[in-house]
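Researcher: Can you fold this with NAP in place?
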Amino acid sequence: MTVAIIGTGKMGSGIAKLLAGKGEKVVIGARDPAKASALAAEIGGDAEGGGIEAAVKLADLVILAVWYQQFEETVRAAGDLSGKVLVDISNPITEDFKGLRIGHTTSAAEELQALAPKAKVVKAFNTIFAELLPAEAREGRDPVQVFVAADDEAAKTAVSDVVAKGGFQPVDSGPLSNARFLEPVGEINIWFGFFLGWGTSAAPAWIKG
Ligand SMILES: NC(=O)c1ccc[n+]([C@@H]2O[C@H](COP(=O)([O-])OP(=O)(O)OC[C@H]3O[C@@H](n4cnc5c(N)ncnc54)[C@H](OP(=O)(O)O)[C@@H]3O)[C@@H](O)[C@H]2O)c1
């Protein structure tokens, strides 16, 4: 399966490198295609980079690695997202990183679904700091959980498979509307990591009784 990654920032480059390193075919898309091509060249192998729409066209699974505020513009640039699995990794945080812009009655994931109604939106990776994406950063510790929420079961399975391929433990977190609960978990993780001294190897772990 080809995975498109939109965004060449901390999360986009981290996920692209991780998945390519595990043998996944990755296509990177960016508003500046040269940035995506440069990242693909750095990754090597069969990684490709270019514009956003071109990357989306080549993939069935698209990981959106941009900020919540950029969703509208990025979805517009993505072209036809019909039938695509569209992964939302975002935390819709405020400028000071200390709160969420939206919540309770909606979530970034549901807002994305409204912007791209024909895509199958899946929430994942929002509780993982970019620093934990390289496999080496997780060596010797318990499996790091990635909470996966979606309404489409096949899309949830496809994303869970990608999560597992990256060496994380996918946790079925129910329907997409549960992103309303996962995004605050992402926010408290930011508090632990940035403001309460735990550092960016912090990650939530849910324990089964
Ligand atoms: N960093 C983390 O540890 C972390 C953890 C969990 C979740 N997240 C989530 O992951 C997402 C990305 O975070 P990040 O840390 O990777 O951010 P980042 O390093 O600032 O990268 C953001 C990326 O978005 C691109 N971008 C900005 N505006 C765009 C637009 N209008 N159209 C297309 N692309 C656009 C940027 O491209 P340019 O280079 O062209 O500006 C850049 O590649 C956010 O939603 C964040 O909440 C981050």
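Model: Folded with NAP in place. The domain at 2-195 is CATH 3.40.50.720 (Rossmann fold).
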